[in-house]
Amino acid sequence: MSKPITGKTHVGERREKRPNGDIYIYERVTAYNEKTRKTYTVSLKLKGKIKSGTDEIVPTRPKKHKGEKVSARAKRQHTGLTDILEWVGKASGIDNDVSASFTEGDAKKILSVARYWIGTDGNTLPRIESWQVMHPLPYTEPISEDVYSNLFKHIGWNEEGIQNYFSFRAMRLDSSPVLAFDSTTISTYSENQSEARQGFNKNGDGLNTIKLLTLYSVKAQEPIAFAKQPGNVPDVISIENALSQLKCLGLENPLIVTDNGYYSQKNMTEFTQRNTKFLTLADTSLVWIRETVDTLRETISGMSSTCTFDPAVCGATESKMHEFSWVRQRLHNNKEAGQKETFSRRMYIHIYHSHGNKAKKELAFRKDLLELKAQIESESVDFTKPAQKKIEKYFICSKKGRGGKLKVRFNDKAIAEAQKNIGYFALVSNQKMDTFTALENYRLREKIEELFAIQKGRLDGARPRTWYPDNLRGRQFVQFVSLGYHCFLMKKIKEMRATLGEDGTGKTKALIKLEKKLDTWLDQRSLAQVLDWFDCIETTNVHTTMGSYRWSTESVARDRLFLERLGVTSD
Questions:
Q1: Please, are residues 151 and 106 in contact by the beta-carbon 8 Å criterion?
Q2: pLDDT tens, residue by residue, 329-376
Q3: I need a labelling partner for 199 at 20 to 30 A (CA). Which of 44, 403, 451, 534 fits?
Q4: Hey, where are the domains in the chain?
Q5: Cα angle: 453, vertex 456, 461; to 5 degrees
Q6: What is the 3-state secondary structure (H, E, C) of 517-546?
Q7: What 3-state class would DSSP assign to 187?
Q8: pTM for the whole structure
Q9: How far is it, in rounded angstroms, from Cα 421 to Cα 98?
């Protein structure tokens, strides 16, 4: 007996292999035609395909039917600037070091605020919540005033996290790093900051100050650690804590470079006793330095003593044993506390003469003496102690008879003796090194001054802007992280520019021309202007029932070359 005809359809599957190896899978609906006694296809629908060499079925995108409404979720953000900063955080290791030192939430907030400061050239924080609406940051929730205030407070309390971050940054340095050590002051009207005190104010505004001390790697060109102190603490007594911090960071044989603000016999003794290498600018008026200048004067005048990277400077080095003394603080090896001890160590004195600097300083010296002479003759000025010392040294003052007119003459012999040493400067070290290697290391130290200018001017660091000392500590740490971003990006741009426009294998004339165009463009812009230029790049993301779509603003060839050579995008 034959099977009864039900009239129902049957759903099956059909596979078709294409010439490229892809297999298309269709859903086939069939039915039986009683008249023709044959099976026919009712409908054929493409379900997906299996790409050549794989076993996974890739489903097809559903078709939009006429009149059907498509719901979409869309978002547009400025990603050009933030993509560069995200690359900086990863390439420099800063993001990893912050994440390893703090909780996930705090780490994302720190990185977000740090990127905001560098991305806006130091805008104040009340604007960050509106800025992050159009700029993707690691912390996706709104960063309100309460959020960043609590962040600064918690970081200020979390000294373990701060010191861990410093140690992680120090671990990335090469062996035997060269570290610059210097300070700056932050002025404040606040009476809540207990460390704000009257001292030497580098801004010269007469306000109470807080001192910020920074360790900076001159070869890696990035800050390593910082500390804050009361504003009345002189630079010259700040070395001891810095040396303790170096031990905490675990740096191997660092060379500490300082200017003459840190030079003193006591500091040299501290360095020497702790077996720490140092290089410092010394005053040529010191007896033992002045004797070395006299000894090397003839040598320095020769052509062979000319600096190869700065022909305006000549230099020579002499080593000599120098005696140090110190007072014992506690009983040790049967030696009583308070007992004075002496020891000798070999010092290397590098003497330099700058011809260009000599002319400027000599002119300033003469103008100063002429102005001082006029003030003496007016007899209407109360002189400070330094000015009185100059008068006693460089002038001969006399009066004829009782109530006679004051007569002021120059002491030409003393002036000639002083002018003899104008243009000379000295570097002292306990580490043997070439004359001009020492000069190069010292000049690299000057980069730390640029660092302070960036932190104050471009990272909103000129004022504390917080009520309490612990909050200030946290705020300064986030600024320090942002400073790391800035230094790394500047270094990479400098390295990239050194290769632009050079003839090389595989470079066409058109490419060399484009590289020169990029180099000229970078030469005319600051880092803030470069980042602002790329801030115009927008990315739009649209998610619909039909699928997800993404597109970004088009870029010109020069901009694409910049991102490729920097490493933000692949070639």
A1: yes
A2: 665 556 666 677 788 889 999 999 998 888 888 888 899 999 888 888
A3: 451
A4: 10-60, 500-566
A5: 155
A6: HHHHHHHCCCHHHHHHHHCCCEEEEEEECC
A7: strand
A8: 0.76
A9: 50
